[in-house]
């Protein structure tokens, strides 16, 4: 399915961050190389999160880059029933301090102190720095 602006809607906006919802009328078939959201480049900002729902499940992605009308996503999660043709690095982006800092800017971490998000950040720093030994 091709991108349709009618299927992209804002769920929440705060402090320059937007949480989007996108419905695909069919199977989710999005990869970083597909340029699927290029048609929304004028609306999407780096750091925005998109909840994507399709006939084969759901996935969550964040906007990693948006330059010259080209949108690159980083996939944060995919539900087990989603048979998306993405490789493991797109579902679990390589762990870096920048990825963890981006997660720390999420209000669920710094404002609401969501236990799952706080643990994800703690675990990420433990893996990042203890694995390097």
Q: Can you give the mean pLDDT?
A: 80
> Major beta sheet, specifics?
5 strands, mixed
Helical/strand content category: alpha+beta
In spatial order, strands of the major sheet run 1-2-3-4-5
Helix content: 10-25%
Low-confidence stretches: 80-91
Supply the number of structural domains.
Answer: 2
Q: What is the helix tally?
A: 4
Strand content: 25-35%
Overall radius of gyration: 15 Å
Tally of extended strands?
A: 5
N→C terminal distance: 46 Å
- Give the ordered list of helices and strands: EEEEEHHHH
Query: What form results from the Cα inertia axes?
Result: globular
Task: Jot down its keywords.
133 residues, alpha+beta, 4 helices, 2 domains, 30% strand, five-stranded mixed beta sheet
